[in-house]
Design brief:
InterPro entries: PSP1-like, PSP1_C
Radius of gyration: 34 Å
Strand order of the largest sheet: 2-1-4-3-5
Structural class: alpha+beta
Order of helices and strands: EEEEHEHHEEHEHHHHHEEEEHHH
Protein name: PSP1 C-terminal domain-containing protein
Strand content: 15-25%
Number of strands: 12
Organism: Maribacter aquimaris
Shape: extended
Largest sheet: 5 strands, antiparallel
Helix content: 25-40%
């Protein structure tokens, strides 16, 4: 969902508001919540909820109490209470939906330690805010250089300024514990501001930086995903994926979040599906499961003495054999069941009725052009003419 200023510009190129999710309509931000109660009025005698939701730099939301009864709406820039000084943020939600969001995040709306909203931001506040935000990239680059000089095993991934410009929060990732006391002293001396270091995980780092995934789309964590569920290798096993770290890992170096998207569907399908550890007992010998296809409800079994000879059985056939084995009955052989599953190769699976070109059309040898044929004809005529002259 984009804002009005994100329309198409010249030559079909996206125009973009260039505000990185801080435009007035707040429509190009992944943390935006649709206010479906905006057109509804409160019952008589009811007061509006005095807490609003405020967003900071596209990645952090907090709740603030509107103690001054200010008339606030989504998109308003406000000055909020901070540990020291004030911060500048954008109102993203008001009204009863804020109560729902606080309940979802398990926060008490009656708590006394909820910070307050001071005022609507003045033009001076907004100018200072935009000025310090423009410095973030330069300071991030300089802070990385200082960390390299101090030989610290850490990576500074993002910087977030407080709205009044008196404090900056540096987000970093590190494998082990880092002693950055000297780093804080050097950065405070170089930048003239108070420094706060905050360690984040690799998933949070990918969320802040963004990028393009192996699917060709923007990373889910940087566009719409707001919470991180744990991903384990069992999710790949249930979906019968190859346990290749290079294919299963995302840009954060951890397992891809999308491995959980279809996991519930696979778990439901596997409830009544025979286990791959199943052994079938036949008169010909014991058979082991070699492969299973959940979508086609097919399983491939092979005898212990013939591991390279696979027999395809349906899920119902395998269940039938298992039930007979439980009764201590053995079937004659797997071939009797596999005969019914032989695919007729003569049956047309796909027929080209639209007139598409063959995929191997570029593999055909090129024909000689008329120009080359004419040149060859001229050469032959010249040779015949010279022969006649010699004979004469």
């Amino acid at each position: 969902m984009g804002c009005n200023s994100c329309s198409t510009g010249k030559d079909g190129q996206p125009k973009g508001c260039k505000n990185n999710g801080t435009c007035g309509s707040d429509g190009c931000n992944k943390l935006t919540v649709f206010d479906w109660l905006s057109n509804m009025s409160l019952p008589n005698g009811e007061k509006p909820f005095d807490i609003v939701e405020v967003r900071f730099k596209n990645s952090r939301k907090e709740f603030f109490r509107n103690s001054g009864d200010l008339t606030l709406s989504i998109g308003d820039i406000v000055a909020t209470q901070a540990q020291s000084g004030h911060d500048i943020g954008m109102v993203t939600l008001t009204g009863e939906l804020v109560r729902v969001q606080m309940k979802k995040k398990k926060e008490d709306p009656k708590a006394e330690d909820i910070p307050k909203i001071y005022r609507k931001a003045t033009q001076k506040d907004i100018d200072i805010w935009q000025k310090v935000r423009d410095r973030e990239e330069e300071i991030k680059k300089r802070s990385r250089e200082i960390a390299i000089i101090l030989k610290l095993q850490m990576k500074i991934s993002d910087v977030e300024f407080q709205g009044d410009g008196s404090k900056a929060t540096f987000y970093y990732t590190a494998e082990e514990r880092v002693d950055f006391r000297q780093l804080i002293k050097d950065m405070a001396k170089a930048f003239g501001i108070r420094i706060e270091m905050r360690q984040i995980g690799y998933r949070q780092e990918a969320q802040r930086l963004g990028g393009i995934g192996s699917c060709g789309r923007e990373l889910c964590c940087s566009t719409w995903l707001t919470d991180f569920r744990s991903v384990s290798t069992s999710a790949a096993r249930y979906q019968q994926l190859s346990l290749n770290p290079q294919k299963l890992a995302g840009q954060c170096g951890k397992l891809k979040c999308c491995l959980n998207y279809e996991l519930d569907l696979y778990l439901d399908a596997l409830k009544d599906f025979p286990s791959q550890d199943t052994k079938l007992f036949t008169e010909k010998g014991m058979a082991f499961c070699q492969k299973a296809d959940i979508f086609k409800s097919k399983l491939w079994f092979s005898y212990k003495d013939e591991p390279s000879n696979w027999h395809m059985l349906s899920k119902e056939q395998v269940v039938e054999i298992i039930n007979k084995n439980k009764k201590k009955e053995k079937v004659a052989s797997l071939e009797e069941y596999a005969v019914d599953n032989i695919i007729d190769d003569d049956k047309v699976v796909f027929e080209n009725v639209v007139g598409q070109d063959s995929l191997t059309r570029f593999d055909r040898p090129k024909r000689r052009t008329n120009k080359s044929n004419n040149n060859n004809k001229k050469r032959r005529n010249n040779k015949n003419k010279k022969r006649r002259q010699r004979n004469a």
